[in-house]
Amino acid sequence: MTASAPGAPGEGGRPGARDIPVWDPLVRLIHWSVALAVLLNATVLDPEGRPHEVAGYAVAGLVAVRLAWGLIGPGPARFATFPPNPAAALRHLRHWRAGAGTVHLSHNPLGALMVYNLWLTLLALVVTGVMMGTIRFFGIQWVEEAHEMAFDWLMISVALHVGGVVIDTLRTGVPLVRAMVTGRKRVPAGARVR
Prior knowledge:
The protein has 194 residues and is mainly alpha-helical. It has a single domain, classed as Fumarate Reductase Cytochrome B subunit (Up-down Bundle), CATH 1.20.950. Helix content is 60%, strand content 6%. The strands form two sheets. It has a two-stranded antiparallel ribbon. The longest helix is centred in the last third of the chain and has 32 residues.
């Protein structure tokens, strides 16, 4: 961690701001690779084409690696750091509405729920996509509908995720997109850190 002397400009010119290492290169690579694959599958690739399937399999592999990394990776990447806890997410919302601002080095409780939601939704897309390519499930309407519903839910979730990142960045002063690019969270002086 790098910290500036009290009152002195921190990195980026913010008085007392601290840059704290949080996201390791593997977490960042997986995050942006999944985002790119989803973007390509949603906007460019033909849903009936082989590149769409390859991107889907790539997402499956990336999510599998990320889930394994959640067990063996460094602290902020581990599931124990951000367990899915709806009660904690509700408390986080109440504190947020009351104006309390805590900076979470890993995911905040609401962000943790979103991360697990995104992983499960991506896995549902992969499973239903693979099913559609098998002899047993090819052309079965409920499988196709489940795939489309999972995709629709993913798009809603991505919109909520991006909105949450913007809101959390504005409320805490921590540039979260920068943190997912550089791996370091820039925490304002005097911020409560968890």
